[in-house]
# Entry
Amino acid sequence: MNIFISLILGYAFGCFSTGYFVGKIYKVDIRKYGSGNSGTTNALRTLGKRAGILTLLGDVSKAVIPLLLIKLVFFKDQSNTQLLALYTGLGVVIGHNYPFWLKFKGGKGIATTGGVMIAFDWIMVPPALLIFVGTIAITKYVSLGSLLVSMFFPIWIFFTNSYDIHMLIVALIYTVLAFIKHMPNIKRLINGTENKINQKVNINNK
# Structure
């Protein structure tokens, strides 16, 4: 029951599609442009840096808040609080990727996963950022950096939580979700046609 509550709480927060609301401020549905999702990267390419930053902050915050509620309020005395926090974050990512009220068309879950990392164990954030930023700096591919971070997450969880198989399985679901949402990007990476971070979307020509 606690796992179910954690997932539902996370999903409720995840369904707040920051990029969609930021786009509405600009009178644009960013899901109709660029990559077609409502995440940070598409907001950045479609609407610029300010919109990208607002979307990033919103998507990170909507993961941090429910995890802190689980860890510090609802289940603070439970022996498996960290596991429940991980399930909460999974709910957030699922809600972000598949918001019911937007016909399950959301983002790709990387910024929200970053929020989960911050609230779950902030010590993993510097190496994760190094992987993410370093990959983008070298290749200019946000998608590649995102995929590598999604792979780093379960590895860190496993080795810092007493080799807990249950937690590893949950963390691996984050990775699977990231790869599922990035399948078009993976195909473009293989074909050499993937968009680079400095490529913009001209919404006026849509």
Observations:
- The mean pLDDT is 90.
- The chain has one domain: 2-205.
- DSSP finds ten helices and no strands in the chain.
